[in-house]
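Exercise: predict the fold of this chain.
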Amino acid sequence: MPKDYPRSRRIAEQIQRELSGIIRLELKDPRVGMITITDVEVSHDYSHAKVFFTQLGDSAKAEEVTGALQHAAGFLRSQLAHRLKLRIVPELHFTYDVSVEEGMRLSQLIDAAVASDLDRSADK
């Protein structure tokens, strides 16, 4: 593998793929609805993984979903242990990812500014 693709990044991507499937198919907590795992950051010693997620719809429930995922972290970690060939499966820490919402908000602002400029140039 090239040097610019370190092992921690490969492990993070594998954890992201596996967690997405486990949460979608095996996690039965009703508080966790339609979520998307957007990124995973693994510490250098592979003992901790920060899992970023977004959810469809109501972002006000993000704290509740984070709590539900943190409550299920032991189950998720044990399922990862069965699927990954790692000596140490990292502890999972879940964080709501606001970057998608911020990106949509900025895109709407840009669209509004462009529409405003078009309206001004059409009036002239």
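Check your answer against the key: The mean pLDDT is 87.
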